[in-house]
Amino acid sequence: MGVTVKASLGKTKYYTEVVAGENQLITDEPVDKGGQNKGFNPFEILATSLASCTAATLRMYIDRKEWNVEKINVEVDLENFPITKLAVFKRNISFEGTNLDAEQLKRLHTIADACPVHKILTNEIEILTKFS
């Protein structure tokens, strides 16, 4: 699956308009980094990708199995360690309005790890840059 995202940043420090198809969002940097904190920062967007993909993947599976789960909560903490080139994603998943047994939870853990963003982040990544 291919995705194209376009980001445009003018002279207002670090207020960036991002467009993907018909959807738009704003990213920015926190005030202490020179931004105005008017949107998610890039690290928050990265963590958001994992959290939202995990929730959607779990919902698809739960609905297919016809399990009664009222709400899926996914919290992702991202810590970046540039010196050691290590990034650690801590993902906490909880469910509301249900009593899932141990076997169901084990299966859901496998499904969470099969979310497409999880797969991308745990596979080899290559970034090709071109100036035009």
Automatic annotation (TrEMBL):
- InterPro entries (alphabetical): KH_dom-like_a/b (IPR015946), OsmC/Ohr_fam (IPR003718), OsmC/Ohrsf (IPR036102)
PANTHER family from the xrefs? OSMC-LIKE PROTEIN, PROTEIN INVOLVED IN RIMO-MEDIATED BETA-METHYLTHIOLATION OF RIBOSOMAL PROTEIN S12 YCAO
Q: Name the chain's protein.
A: OsmC family peroxiredoxin
